[in-house]
Specification:
Strand content: under 5%
CATH architecture: Up-down Bundle
Distance between the termini: 14 Å
Shape: globular
Oligomer: single chain
Number of strands: 0
Largest sheet: none
Structural class: mainly alpha
Radius of gyration: 21 Å
CATH superfamily: MFS general substrate transporter like domains
Number of helices: 22
Helix content: over 70%
Mean pLDDT: 82
CATH topology: Growth Hormone, Chain: A
CATH class: Mainly Alpha
Number of domains: 1
Amino acid sequence: MQQVQGTAPRQPSHRLAGISSMVGTTIEWYDFFIYGAAAALIFNKLFFPNLDPLSGVLAAFATYAVGFIGRPLGGIVFGHFGDKVGRKSMLLLTLLLMGVPTVLIGLLPTYESIGYWAAFLLVILRFVQGMAMGGEWGGAVLMAVEHAPEGKKGFWGSLPQASAGGGLMLASMALWLVSLMPEPILFSWGWRLPFLASILLLGVGWYIRVKVPESPDFEKVKAQSKEIKVPALQVFKNHPKQVLTIIIARAAENAWFYMASTFALAYTTTQLGIPRQEILFATICGAGAIMLMTPLCGHLSDKVGQRNMFMFGLLVLALYCYPFFSMLNTKDPLLVWTAIVLAIGVVFPIMYAPQAQLFARQFPAEIRYSGISISVQFAGVLGGGLAPMAATKLLSIGGGSPHLISAYMLSMAAVAILCTCLMPRDRNFIQHKQYLPEAETR
C-alpha cells in the first residue's frame, strides 16, 4: 500500500517546514516575478530599443519565456538529486542559483552599452533562474506536505503556494516604488535597485532554510534502501498518465496567473494607456489576497478534497475569462482594480492552493520529487511561458481586441477540467486517509 506522506513527524517540525518553505519560496518568487514585471514595463526599452512598442514587448516576453524553458530541465536535474540526496540540500542550492542571477541582472549593461550582447546575457541569466525555479518548487511543497500531519496536508502544502502572492507583492511593490522616479532616472539606474535588493533576501532565505530538518518521507526511503537509480526514467515509464494529466490540467492555471499578473501589465499600460502605477497597485492588492486566500483554500481542500477544489477553480476561471477583459477595457479605475484583484487574488488561489497535495499523491515517495517537478515545470512551459507571447500575438491578430485571448483561456480551462477528471477521486483519500494502491493510480 502506498502511504500518503509516510508517518507523521514525531515533533511539530511541520510548522517549521511549512513556514520556512513559505518564506524561502517567497524570496525565490520575488526573484522570478521582478523579471516578469520588468519585462512588461521596462526591458523592451532597455534591451530592444530599435523595435516598435508591441514588438519590443514581444521580444521582452521572449526572454521572459526562456525562464520557463529552463524550468523542466531544472525539474529533472534537481528532482533527480532531490530523490537521491535529499529535499533540503536542493532547496538551499536552488535558492542560491535563483538569487545570484537576479543580482547580476541588476548589474547588467544595457543595449546602449554593449548592443545585443546585453540581451544575450539577459537570456543566459534568465535561463539559470528558470532552472533554479524548476527545481525549487518541488522541494518546497514536498518539505511542507511530507512533514505535515494527516488531514492537514492540504493546508500546510498550501503555505509555499501562498508564497507566490508574497513574491508577487514584494516584486510589484519594489517596481512600483522605483516607477515613481522620473523616467530618465528609472531607465538609467532606478530599475536596477529591485534586482540588487535580492542579495539581502537571499541571506534571509538561506538562514531560515538551513534550520529545517530533512523530510521524514525521504529519510524513510533511505532507511528502507528504496532509492531509484534514475527517478526520471521511472516517472516516464511507470507514471505517464499522471505526468500528462498534471501537465495539461496545470497549464490552464499557470497561463491564467501570468496572463493576469504579467500580460495584463503590458496590455493595460501599452494598449489601454492606463498609468502603470495603477496596475501595479492592483497587482499588489491581488498578491496580498493570494496570501490570505491560498491557506484558506488549502484548509477547505482538506475538507472537500484537493481534486474537487482544483476542478472548482478551473470552472471559475472558465466563467471569468470574458468578464476580466471586459472590465479592463472600460478603463474605469475601480473596475480595472477589481478585475485584476479578483483574477490574481481569488480565481487563482482556488486552483493553486490544493496542487501541492493533489500532485504529490500521484507518485510514490522514492520518485515524488522528480514526478511533481517534471510534470509541473513542463506545464509551466505550456502555460506560463507561452501565455504572454501567445496573448500578445492574439491581440495583434484581433486588431487590439482581447476576444481571442479570452477564447484561448476558455479552451485551456475546458481541457484542464477533462484532464483533472482522470485523476483519482478525492473520496478515496479522504475516507481512507492513505494513497490508493499503486495499481489504481496508474
